[in-house]
Write a structure and sequence with these properties.
Layout: E1 2-7, E2 13-17, E3 32-34, E4 45-53, H1 57-60, E5 72-73, H2 79-88, H3 93-99, E6 105-108, E7 111-114, H4 118-122, H5 126-136, H6 143-146, E8 149-151, H7 167-175, E9 178-180, E10 183-186, H8 189-193, H9 199-208, E11 212-221, H10 227-234, H11 242-253, E12 259-262, H12 269-274, H13 291-296, H14 310-320, E13 321-324, E14 333-337, E15 343-351, E16 354-358, E17 367-371, H15 372-378, E18 386-392
Amino acid sequence: MLCLVLIVATGATFHFFSRDKATPIDDRTTHTTQKTNDTQHPWGQLHVQDVTIEQPTEYVSFESTELRKTEWFFGACNASQTGNILRASGISDTEVATFLHKDVTSSVDAGTTIAPTDKMILGLNAEVRAKLYRELARWPENKLYAAPYHLTDEPIEAIFASKNLPKEIIALIRSLTFQRGGITCFSDVNLVLNRLSSAEQKIKLLQALTFQKATLVQVHIDDQTDIDELLGYWGEVPDVRSKDLRPLLESIQKTPQGFNLSLLYFLPPFARERLFTFPFPSKPGDTKMDCHWTALNFFNDTTDDRYQDTAYSSAYVNENFYQIGAATQFGDLIFLRNSSGAIVHSAVHIADDIVFTKNGINYAQPWILMRMNNLTAVYTQEKPPEVIYYRRKQS
């Protein structure tokens, strides 16, 4: 779940990552909202429907369903330093001695690794688990702790309702959750997978955990719609021509009750062709289609794979964009910066609070539309990331 490094004009290091797992949410709930604000917006009246999307079964099936081993890597820490981290997380001296026992701990030049037993993991309460896993997140080797699964705030049973998983497994998952940045998280998937009896159940669990929130967006057209104002916003998009949109919009405007027109009609070809699709599984040497490659190619007819190169991307952003206070124009770039000053994600502003995004480099991450608050939740660690905005200089 880790992206690469990109440097913008401000001098901040753009450290970003690809999430190996998508962000799960309630797969039973769909909310529909109609924008009915009295204030007329240049993008028109949006009809937004919240949906969920999960990885295709054939993608999830790449995941190993064999016995999985949990390991905690403590970087270059020796046994004494590792013990101090455990104590600082709230683990007692007696328990620390158990965690550092030679049967579960190995120390090499690269650092200390603990292979905790199920009993050790289950013995952590939620507060201790949150503190310890926050420490483990310091080292990228601990993927499941650096980028845990995010669970819905609603009862977690809803996530697994369609998967027919045993009730005791769902209860076990609930007991292993912890809070990070106000979000319910889950990292101990290996322990749970090892307790499932069949490969089919394991695949269902993994698939349930890939749910992420997305939105379907339509633009409502009726006899009150200001077509000129609408084209002033959407008609300026490269390869979205006013001459092609106007006849369609004026035709819809004549219908008795109006019509909700798919946002696809207003998107440039790059986004139109990819929205709600998954890349094919990658092979060595394939293009790294992460969030930044996606954001910088958004208006391109032909994708520019030089955006894989951090030096090139850095120079491109520095030369062609400038920082702004808020995203108000279609195509503005949105960057999420964590408390360390590292950029953890980029996306493209569409309209209102809707963004176009690909949440990671993994081929099992689709291109989707999201609400801004849902996007920041995905990349929240100790606190929500800072949001910064950039606009193309010729805009």
